[in-house]
Design a protein that fits this description.
The protein is α+β, with helices and mostly antiparallel strands. The protein has four domains: about 1-75, Winged helix-like DNA-binding domain superfamily/Winged helix DNA-binding domain (Arc Repressor Mutant, subunit A, Orthogonal Bundle), CATH 1.10.10.10; about 80-125, no CATH class; about 140-230, SH3 type barrels; about 245-325, Alpha-Beta Plaits, CATH 3.30.70. Helix content is about 40%, strand content about 25%. It is built from eleven helices and 13 strands. Strand 4 (about 155-160) and strand 5 (about 170) form a beta hairpin. Helix 1 packs across helix 3 and helix 10 (about 290-295) crosses helix 11 (about 310-325). The N and C termini lie far apart (about 85 Å).
Length: about 325
């Protein structure tokens, strides 16, 4: 019994120091003993020194400022403040994270820096003016998805859009979707499920915040040898706004002011050449979709598709359709 209490005491010493101390906020031996006594754990200086020595001998590093009243602290953290700040900013900016969950996650992330630094870290964070999702079920959905991926099971769910009245309008007259989950992707400020659709025999994307009643199926995922070399990173570069389409090698001519943006989109490995007119030219593999055509038009005259010809024609057709819509 005495041995169990000794182990509990060491555990509580470690918990207190990890949670409440750092190099700028050490805790004196007197205060540490007082904190333990409030928990109903008796301790004196001699046994405290022995317990801290035992923690250090077993890899739990507790540092000490030697003085009349020794001051103890834990320096090692899993994340430094800069890393935690980046994570907080990412949570603040993510629209699929609801307001309530944003506050909860920010508090948890800040807490990883210790109680003293947590408030400082949160006070130095600027809240983004981001329109947040109201779907609180997204976290349950994500948990079901990642569990299904790990267990190699299909998932089932309903999928919906929002009507003009702001209410859910279910697709397929609220019939279940059955898919093989593959990965989750954060793209264009939304969180997507990447999966293989047996019915259409292709990879598909679904916004997780628009998925309802996500459940792990008892059916195993359908194994496909053609997906053994599938690259999520490459796939994400090829699709536009998560609308998949047929693969095609497309050539662009761009104004040089777009060079950085093209590297951001397609990666720094794309090979460009300078043209005599001062513009740049490059070719990449993309998936053709209405979203891709819209992306091309978003740059106005600063980007032009030059090859293949049928893709050029698709862009021209969209330009003409837009012109006609404004003349009606």
């Amino acid at each position: 019994m005495e041995k169990s209490i000794s182990k509990l005491k060491m555990l509580k010493i470690w918990e207190i120091l990890v949670r409440e101390t750092d190099e700028e906020n050490p805790m004196t031996s007197t205060e540490l003993i007082s904190r333990l006594e409030k928990m109903g754990i008796s301790c004196d200086r001699r046994t405290l020194y022995k317990d801290i020595d035992a923690l250090n001998e077993n890899g739990y590093e507790v540092l000490c400022n030697r003085s009349k009243k020794n001051e103890y602290y834990v320096l090692d953290r899993k994340f430094d403040d800069a890393e935690l700040h980046i994570l907080i900013d990412a949570v603040q900016a993510a629209s699929f994270v609801t307001e309530n969950k944003t506050k909860e996650l920010v508090n948890k992330i800040a807490g990883l820096s210790g109680s003293h630094r947590a408030e400082i870290l949160k006070s130095n964070t600027v809240a983004f003016n981001t329109v947040k999702s109201t779907n609180e079920k997204i976290y349950y959905s994500v948990n079901e998805i990642i569990t299904a991926i790990k267990e190699k099971k299909k998932i089932e769910f309903y999928y919906f859009d929002y009507g003009v009245d702001g209410k859910k309008v279910y697709r397929r007259e609220k019939k279940l979707y059955w898919v093989n989950p593959y990965a989750t992707i954060f793209s264009n400020d939304c969180y997507y499920l990447l999966c293989y659709d047996d019915k259409h025999e292709k990879m598909s994307h679904y916004r997780i915040d628009r998925m309802d009643s996500v459940t792990i199926s008892q059916r195993d995922i359908k194994k496909r040898s053609d997906l053994d070399d599938f690259s999520v990173k490459k796939h994400k570069k090829q699709v536009f706004s998560m609308f998949a389409g047929d693969d095609e090698r497309v050539t662009f001519q761009i104004d040089k002011c777009l060079i950085d943006g093209m590297h951001d989109k397609f990666g720094s490995g794309i090979k460009m050449k300078e043209l005599e007119n001062g513009e740049a030219e490059f070719s990449v593999d993309v998936q053709l979709s209405p979203a891709f055509i819209g992306w091309c038009l978003s740059f106005g005259s600063k980007l032009k598709v030059t090859y293949p010809s049928y893709v050029v024609d698709k862009v021209k057709e969209q330009i003409e359709a837009l012109r006609q819509s404004y003349e009606q």
